[in-house]
From TrEMBL, chain A:
Name under which the protein is recorded: YciI family protein
Signal peptide: none
TM region(s), chain numbering: none
Family note: Belongs to the YciI family.
Residue stretches making up the YCII-related domain: 1-106
Organism: Actinomadura fibrosa
InterPro entries xrefs: Dimeric_a/b-barrel, YCII
UniProtKB/TrEMBL annotation, chain B:
InterPro entries: DUF6596, RNA_pol_sigma70_r2, RNA_pol_sigma70_r4_t2, RNA_pol_sigma_r2, RNA_pol_sigma_r3/r4-like, WH-like_DNA-bd_sf
Database matches in Gene3D superfamilies: 1.10.1740.10, Winged helix-like DNA-binding domain superfamily/Winged helix DNA-binding domain
Keywords assigned: Sigma factor, Transcription, Transcription regulation
Family recorded in the similarity comment: Belongs to the sigma-70 factor family. ECF subfamily.
Protein name as annotated: RNA polymerase sigma factor
Pfam families the record matches: DUF6596, Sigma70_r2, Sigma70_r4_2
RNA polymerase sigma-70 region domain ranges (all copies): 5-70
Species whose genome carries this gene: Actinomadura fibrosa
Amino acid sequence: MKYLLLKHYRGGPTPAADWPPMDQWTPEEVDAHVQFMRDFAARLEETGEFVDTQALAPEGAFVRYDGDGRPPVTDGPFAETKDLIAGWYIIDVESWERAVELAGELSAAPGPGGEPIREWLEVRPFLGGAPATAE
Amino acid sequence: MNEPLLRELVPVVIGVLVRRGADFASAEDAVQEALIRALATWPDEMPRDPKGWLVAVGWRKFLDSARAEASRRGRELAVQTEPPAGPAPAADDTLRLFFLCAHPTLPQASAVALTLRAVGGLTTRQIAAAYLVPEATMAQRISRAKRRLAGLPLDRPGDLATVLRVLYLVFNEGYGGDVDLAAEAIRLARQLVALTDEPEVAGLLALMLLHHARRASRTGAGGRLVPLGEQDRSRWDTGMIREGVAVLQTALARDRLGEYQAQAAIAALHADARTAAETDWVQIVEWYDELLLLTGSPVVRLNRAVAVGEADGPRAGLAALADLDPALPRHTAVTAYLHERAGDLEQAAALYAEAARAATTMPERVHLTREAARVRQLLRP
C-alpha cells in the first residue's frame, strides 16, 4: 500500500513546539537535521519501502481555465495564511500502522539542541488501481 | 564486456546504415535495438568483430522494420537489401550525427536525449533514469525529436555552438541513475575535439576537465556543498588539471578566444592556486572582463563582482553589483557573501536566509541556510 507523507511549510494543526526558523539554528544543528533526513531516506530504501521524495519551492500560484481563447487565470502568490506544501515522501508499506510509525519517526527529526521538532506530517493513502480479480 | 567500445561504435554503425540507404530515424532505432541485444549477449559471448556484429544485427533490424512498414503500406522496399560494400568515413558520420542530434530546431531537452542515445550510445532506459522521467516519456521525446528532423539532410555543416551547449548541459547534470553524465559529456567532448578544428571545442573540454578534477572535494559529509574557498585541494585530481591546462593552452595559442576558453582560463587560475589565499584574483577579474566582452551576460557580471570583491575588496565588489537586476539567480547569495566579507554580519545573515528561501536546488538551500546559521553564530555574544 502506498502512502504520501506530506510536509507543510505552514498550515495543519497548531505546532507542538514553536521553533525559530532553521537559519537561526547553529550550523551543527542544521547539519544534524539534514543528516537525519538523508538517513531516513536511506533506511527506507534498505527496507524496500522507499518510492520517492521531492521538495517544493515555496512560490507558485493557483491556475484555472477561463474559457476558450482566453489565457488561464492565475491566483498567486500564495497568501501567508494558506496551507502550503513543502514536499513529500511516497512510501510503499504493509499497513496504515507502518505508515504512521514512519511518519512519527520522520517527525522526530532533530532541531535546536537536538530536540525532536515534532512537526505535523500529513499521511494520506493512495487510491490504487482496479485489481485484476475484481470483476 | 567492453561497454565503452560498444558505445563508441553506436554512432559509427548508425552512419553505416544511413550510407546503405536507411533513413536516420529508422537507422537510429535499429542500432538502439542492436545495442540492447549487445548489452544482453556480449557479456557471455563477445563477438570477434564487434562493429561487424552491430552492423549486421542493426541492418537486419532495419530491414525487418522496413519490410513490415512496406507491407503495411503495400509497397516495394525501396532500399537495397544487399548492402553495398565501400569505404567507411566513420569520423565524418559521427560529426554529422553530433550536428543533427543537436540541431538548433530541437528543444534543448530533446537534443540532449537524442545526442546521448545516437552519439553517446546510451539506452533509452539509462537516459530516462538519468533525467528522472519514465522510460516511455523519454522514448516519446526521442521519437518526436527524430520526426522533427525528418527530411533534414545529414551532410550539411551544423551549428557547433548548439552542440557545445548540449554537451555543457549534459556535463552540468552530473550523476543521474547509473550513468555518470559528467564523464559522458567529457567523453563526447574529447570525441568532438578529435573531429573538429575549433579552439572553442577544446575550450569546452578544458573547462569540463578543470571542473571535473575538483568533483571529489565539492561535496562534504552528508552531501553538503563545499564552496571553492573551503575545498580540500589535496583531493583535486592533479592529472586531470594538468590535462585541462594543456588542452586550454593549445586552444588559446590559436588566438581565437571564445566564452568556453575564457571560462576554462578562470577555472585554470583557480586550479593553479595551492591554497584559496594564493588565488590570482586580479587575473581572474581580467578574464571576467574578456568573458563579459564576449557574452554581455548578467550572470558573468555577477560572478565578476565576486572576483572584484576578492581582488579589490568587498566594497568594490558590492559596487560592481550596483546596476545588476536583484532578481538574477544567486544575486542575493553573492550580496550576502560580500556583506559578510565587509563585516556587515547582521545584513549578511539576513541576506543568506533570504537567498536560502529563493534557492532553486535543495543542496543550495541547505548550504545557504547553513551560511546564515554560521554568520548568526558569529553575532552571538
